[in-house]
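[agent] plan:
  1. take the single chain provided in the ticket
  2. run structure prediction with default settings
  3. attach structure tokens to the ticket
  4. add a short note for the reviewer (M.T.)
[agent] executing step 1
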Amino acid sequence: MAKKSAQRLSEIPEAELTPRQRALMDAIKSGPRGKVSQAGPFGIFLYAPEFGDLAQRLGAHCRFGTSVPPRLSEFAILCTARYWRANYEWHAHAIIAEKAGVLPATIADIKAGRAPKKAPKDERAIYDFFKEYYKTRRVSERTYKRVHAILGNQGMVELTGTLGYYVIISALLNVFNVPVPPGAKPAFG
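[agent] step 2 finished; step 3 output follows
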């Protein structure tokens, strides 16, 4: 069994935040996410506040500002978290996805690395898009047209961008060994 790695960036005590770091946390808290802590990617962002500010604004848009329905967006986020085995991201978004309407059986299938065969047709189309895109770094005309029929031009841009944004988040969480919250069990080894 692999040894658990320690988190690489520690939480910065509130009293030690620079004015730029404090402004970043204030911007995150005043946005659509509401009250947040330094858990997950937000603590990482503080170590590079200019990057963090751009990333958190893009993330807020990907979560709350696109034309992609929340159920489909959260489904795509879970697919990305599973692909990257990003435990913190999975922990945070499995709950959100279920509240947005992704069925528990579908969430269990994705977590296990199985195609969600009983998922609604639109989720299965996005799953096929995601799998093909990550495997080949392209999508076929057939796969593209299936998802385009659901999301249209704007939604296709936003879905593809959301997948890319959550690759960034998953990479940050994995590289810096961000653990799930205390008491939570990691979804992936």
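[agent] step 4 note for reviewer: The helical segments are 19-30, 41-45, 49-64, 70-84, 87-100, 104-112, 121-136, 141-175.
[agent] ticket updated
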